[in-house]
Amino acid sequence: MKNILSTTRLREDMLEQLENEFGGYEFRFVKSREVTDRDREWADIFVTYGSDMKAEDMQAFKNLKWVMVMSAGLDDMPLSEMEGVHITNAKGIHKIQMTEYTIGLLLNFYKDIHQLNLEQERAYWRKQAVTEEIYGKTVHILGTGSIGSHLAGVLKAFGTETTGYNTKGREVENFDRTLPVDELHAHIGEADIVINILPSTGSTRSMLNEETFRKMKDTAVFVNIGRGDIMTDDTVNAVLSEGYIRHMILDVFNQEPLPPGHKFYEYDNLTITPHASSKTPEYLTRAFEIFIYNLRRADDFDSMENIIDNARGY
Amino acid sequence: MKNILSTTRLREDMLEQLENEFGGYEFRFVKSREVTDRDREWADIFVTYGSDMKAEDMQAFKNLKWVMVMSAGLDDMPLSEMEGVHITNAKGIHKIQMTEYTIGLLLNFYKDIHQLNLEQERAYWRKQAVTEEIYGKTVHILGTGSIGSHLAGVLKAFGTETTGYNTKGREVENFDRTLPVDELHAHIGEADIVINILPSTGSTRSMLNEETFRKMKDTAVFVNIGRGDIMTDDTVNAVLSEGYIRHMILDVFNQEPLPPGHKFYEYDNLTITPHASSKTPEYLTRAFEIFIYNLRRADDFDSMENIIDNARGY
User: Could you tell me which residue ranges the D-isomer specific 2-hydroxyacid dehydrogenase NAD-binding domain spans (chains A, B) (predicted)?
Assistant: First the structure.
């Protein structure tokens, strides 16, 4: 195993480190659109962001042993066609930026910062600028992996109460309480803020429906930084036009980019951001560190970090 | 001591509590502008936000024993004329909202949230929305009282390094390090973010000057939620027009409200907010709690909370 194909473009300093430490390997850097079947045949190892592997490519990947996915979401990977291929990903590298992004958007909402910024632009000084606090609020987080746990820890420092939901309700660090996700409807009415971080899997698709939102407080704020397909667009339209809750903050959508003219752009009670929660300059550095860590263990797959169970999909 | 004059308007539930628990007192609620010398003469106790006591009023306050200031800043109080009057204030009630406000504005800046909000308004989806992190940044905080310490604690949860400045450099909870303020110029160049929370006193007025800002990193972000007179407008103009640092976020000013047409409204590298960092609906509740706590101890001034040293001014 010595041929590494990468559709992830690396920085100069990273290439240098690869050359110095991994001289025994051959590297081929190719743009996603320009990968040929010859490249695929050549590769033992494939480094990718994960969206450029199609089921029909798998035939050509005759020698593929290991795929290093430089992101956390595997929704686009043809996992069912990849039996026998070892997969690792970069989960854990999102927790810092996604936590900051989520708290930034929540404070932006409760502190009315966008409005204050607009008032500055027209040189207006609001005399009675009273803003709200997140202190004391109850936050329910769907998904208790590394992002959820880190987010809960920082939210805790703000003086919130945090509940996490996962498959079986197992306890997770930083959460005051965890519940099995099938108890969601029984407890979601307690939350002031609901944050979804779940990945897209067979069991999370359309997991949230109108009923879920009707059970929430009408003052609740819902944030989605997980995957857009946790609910249908029809659900979003119903919730926002009926005003079942106070506000939604969506960073992910069923259709991305969200096209101009999409109905979502019409709502005042919706904040839209362009799937940006995890994107900071530190992203590639952290993903590369995991790749290097695993590449050092290429002769012992089991000792790698972030191994994916192909059957479960995470 | 039984006559309580208040220019602070209280909520119904608070008035009820006063009536139930403090029936032995007489209360007179008067608007600041409508207080007469007769009211002043009548009062043993004065409850005020602190900006409606003038030096020339002190003659009329013949019987005044205790002033409960329902805010933290005493800049407008005629302290030198108040010898023998016991003063308590509401310090400590600002820490939660000011911490949230500061972090909200910092994340708004580094995450470019205002810009993302503007893009939503014109249905534009930015494909490469890469934002910055506060994780790993070095934060220097001028002022290590209850606000500074609380802010440092929450910033710590975000993975920042925090240095606090106070008079003698005494250690304070939640700070990685504290330094005496006279070492400011020797260390301020280490900071990515500088936050001022100092009150206005003889020794803080114009404490920050052009030299201070020239010593900062040119990538530094400066936040002022303390008092505007920590620096002159000339200093602000010089720093922003010369670009000594990357950005300023100012919530307090030498002149408030900042009038339309003020030069500050012209800068792109300045965020202006209308002295709003401490204003949330929870404010009055927390100040009232301190007042009640102290009123229960009205026969033993020394046992009260938040006693002010008239000579020091805090």
Answer: 103-276
Query: Does the beta-carbon distance from B125 to A153 stay under 8 Å?
Result: no
Q: Which two tokens stand for residue A115?
A: 């409005």
CATH superfamily of A3-93+281-303: NAD(P)-binding Rossmann-like Domain (3.40.50.720)
Q: A95-272 has which fold? A: Rossmann fold (3.40.50)
Q: In a structure prediction context, what are the per-residue pLDDT tens digits for chain A, which is 314 residues long?
A: 899 999 999 999 999 999 999 999 999 999 999 999 999 999 999 999 998 999 999 999 999 999 999 988 788 899 999 999 999 999 889 999 999 999 999 999 999 999 999 999 999 999 989 899 999 999 999 999 999 999 999 999 999 999 999 999 999 999 999 999 999 999 999 999 999 999 998 899 999 999 999 999 999 999 999 999 999 999 999 999 999 999 999 999 999 999 999 999 999 999 999 999 998 889 899 999 999 999 999 999 999 999 999 888 77
Could you give the maximum distance between any two Cα atoms of chain B, in Å? 69
How far is residue B46 from each of residues A96, B38, B40, B67, B294, measured CA to CA in Å? 48, 13, 8, 5, 13
Q: Where in chain A is the domain with CATH 3.40.50.720?
A: 3-93+281-303, 95-272
Contacts of A144 (CB under 8 A, 6+ apart): A152, A164, A165, A166, A170, A172, A175, A178
Give the integer Cα–Cα distance in Å for B203 and B226: 14
Tell me the three state secondary structure of residue B174: coil
In Å, how far from its chain's centre is CA B266? 25
- SS3 state of residue A250: strand
Question: How buried is residue A148: exposed, middle or buried, by Cβ count under 10 Å (0-12/13-18/19+)?
Answer: buried
Contact B104 A126 (CB under 8 A): no
CB contact under 8 A, A265 and B120: yes
Half-sphere exposure of B202 (CA within 13 A, CB side): 5
Q: Which residues of B touch A253 (CB under 8 A)?
A: none
Strand locations in chain A (E) = 3-6, 26-29, 45-48, 66-69, 86-88, 138-142, 161-166, 177-180, 193-196, 221-224, 247-250, 270-272
**Residues A44, A50, A51, CA angle at the centre, nearest 5°?**
125
Residue A47, strand partner residues: A6, A68
Distance from CA of B246 to the nearest CA of A (A): 18
Q: Rounded to whole angstroms, how far apart are CA atoms A31 and B31?
A: 71
Q: Three-state SS for B217?
A: coil
List the single residue in A with minimal CA-CA distance to B127: A274
In angstroms and rounded to an integer, the radius of gyration of the C-alpha atoms of chain A is: 22
Q: What is the ipTM of this complex?
A: 0.87
- Helix boundaries (H) for A55-173: 95-110, 113-121, 146-157
Give the β-pairing of B86-88 and B45-48. unpaired
Tell me which DSSP letter residue A95 carries: H
B166 sits in which H/E element: strand B161-166
- Gap from B275 CA to chain A (nearest CA, Å): 8
Q: Judging by DSSP bridges, how do beta strands A86-88 and A138-142 pair with one another?
A: unpaired
